[in-house]
Structure formats: C-alpha cells, structure tokens
Design brief:
Layout lengths: L7 H13 L2 H25 L2 E4 L1 E6 L10 E5 L2 H11 L17 E7 L9 E4 L2 E5 L2 E9 L15 E7 L5 E6 L4 E6 L2
Parallel strand pairs: 7-9
Antiparallel strand pairs: 1-6, 2-8, 3-4, 4-8, 5-7, 6-7, 9-10
C-alpha cells in the first residue's frame, strides 16, 4: 500500500510540527484560557441564587383576619407572633396555644388570601426560597377552584405560616408561581 501525501493525518502532523516551536506558548495560552473560563463559571455561581429552605408549619382555611384582600406579613419576635396567632384563631374554642418557635434563627412569614365566598381556595408557600444579594425571593402557590367545581358554600379565609431562616437580607419578595410580584416586605 502506498502512502498518499496530503491526507488528513499528514495535515495534522504538519500542523503539529509547525507549531512545535511554539508549543510552550500554546500550552500557556491553553492554561490561561481554561483558567479564565473556570473563573467566569465561579463568578457566575456566586451571582446565582442561593437556595434557602423554608419550613411550612401551619396552613388552614379559616383565618379570622378581617381583610378581604391578600396580604403577607413578616413576624420577627414571639410577642408579635402570639398576637397574630390569636387573631388567626379568634373564632376557635378553645383557642390553641402558639407553637414554640426559635425567633433567634428564623422569621415567621404569614400569607393570608383574604375572605372567599366558597371552599376550594388555598394559599401555600413553596419550601424553597432563593437568596440573592439583599433580597430573598419566596414563591407562594395560590389555588382557586375551577368555575364548574362543586364546592362547599361557606366563607373561607385561607392562610399559610412558614419559618424563613434569618440572614443578611433586607427584603423578602413574594412571587406567585406565575412570577407575578405580590409583595415586598422589609426585613427588620
């Protein structure tokens, strides 16, 4: 079999021989380029959202909070939480005691859907929040019954309570699952 000059292997060999004089500079260039790519990836990772795990500890259908509109609250201490908990359960006898919570390490984030004319509504925090810079972004699922659903004819006021770990953030942004901004709360 006769060798054919100019084939792909010969071209690669000629290219490599030609560049062998500069192989050290090519190696340095390759290492610098890889380091630059790695640095870019690391900077990108530092800018991305850091997950924060929330703990949903109570939700219900009958909060005795009188407003007809949706609202959110960030509770920072035991006294403020006890007052809010009493308001939520004002129509329940015997009135339950507020759960014992560690306010040194977490806030209570409360969501109130407001009064609804039927059952089938709910509001629930997703357990994963994201922290970026001075803001934590929390997502809340808001559910309404389909128009043709058979639902109880009772006034409801859905609510949800979750623990949000404290951190060096100044704001808590609440988004719907569709990405609509529902509230921005100032962290104490």
């Amino acid at each position: 079999m006769q060798k054919v000059k100019g084939g792909p292997r010969d071209a690669a060999a000629r290219w490599w021989r030609r560049g062998s004089r500069h192989s050290t500079s090519r190696l340095i260039h390759a290492v610098v380029m890889q380091a630059a790519v790695l640095a870019g990836l690391l900077v990108g990772c530092m800018r991305s959202d850091q997950p924060v795990h929330m703990h949903l500890f109570e939700s219900g259908m009958h909060a005795a909070i009188g407003e007809d509109t949706m609202q959110f609250r960030l509770v920072e201490n035991k006294t403020e939480f006890a007052t809010l908990y009493d308001q939520i359960h004002a129509t329940v006898l015997p009135r339950p005691e507020p759960p014992s919570l560690d306010f040194d390490s977490a806030y209570v984030l409360a969501a109130f859907m407001g009064r609804r004319s039927t059952g089938g509504y709910s509001i629930v925090f997703h357990e994963n929040a994201y922290w970026q810079g001075e803001r934590v972004t929390v997502t809340v699922g808001i559910h309404a019954p389909p128009a043709d659903a058979v639902v109880p004819q009772v006034i409801t006021a859905p609510y949800s309570l979750a623990l949000l770990p404290k951190g060096d953030y100044r704001q808590v942004e609440v988004l719907s699952t569709a990405g609509e901004r529902l509230a921005v709360l100032e962290a104490p």
